[in-house]
Amino acid sequence: MYPEPYLDYLVQFHVKRDYFECHEILEEYWKSAPPQERQSVWVGLIQIAVGLYHHRRGNVNGARKMLTSARALVQKHHAELERLGLDSNALEHLLAVRLEEIGQGLPYRSITLPMQAAELIAAYKAACARQNQPEHRDSDMNDSFLLNKHTLRDRSDVLAERERQLQLRQGKQPDPHAAT
């Protein structure tokens, strides 16, 4: 009933607290859909993970930007979130509280996405069992690999795509010889 990448995202989010991997998993899933079928709800879940990643690393501005955008998508996609087994009202409240905490300068702390559908909870528990993982763990704030994971990857394809998109927005024809 629930896509396997979504369940993997939830395990990463709640157990491993690898928010960078959460982003990677859902972005790949989102990109695999034809452009006309790409749902913004996935972008909102990606932004929540990225916002928490930034907050945990101390990038308050990045966290605020991502979580504000994620909250706007949550507000817009209540029905889709409910179909994904999440309590959309509780999620919206959770994001509002986190944004308030960031504004007050409070440090990062782990959060739990509000799963409400019995089917999602059962599927999540089964995914944890398949991966031999507990159902919840707090972030390991001493794991430098986890905290700095994004700095270790090759970002040339991301940067090239950003440049291509910028050129398209400016009405320019992208350079077909640019590295992708």
Task: Describe the structure in your own words.
Helix content is 64%, strand content 0%. The chain is mostly helical and 180 residues long. It has one domain: Hyaluronidase domain-like (Orthogonal Bundle). Helix 1 packs across helix 7 and helix 3 runs antiparallel to helix 4.
Write out key terms for the chains shown.
single chain; 180 residues; mainly alpha; Hyaluronidase domain-like; 9 helices
Order of helices and strands: HHHHHHHHH
Radius of gyration: 17 Å
CATH architectural designation? Orthogonal Bundle
What's the CATH H-level homologous superfamily?
Answer: TTHA0068-like
The overall pLDDT, averaged over residues, is 85
Distance between the termini: 35 Å
- Total number of β-strand segments? 0
Shape: globular
Report strand %.
under 5%
Compute the number of helices: 9
Question: Helix content range of the residues, please?
Answer: 55-70%
- Count of structural domains: 1
Query: Which CATH class is shown?
Result: Mainly Alpha
pLDDT under 50 segments (min length 5)?
Answer: none
Instruction: Summarize the main sheet.
Output: none
Category from helices, strands and their pairing: mainly alpha
CATH topology: Hyaluronidase domain-like
Protein name: DUF309 domain-containing protein
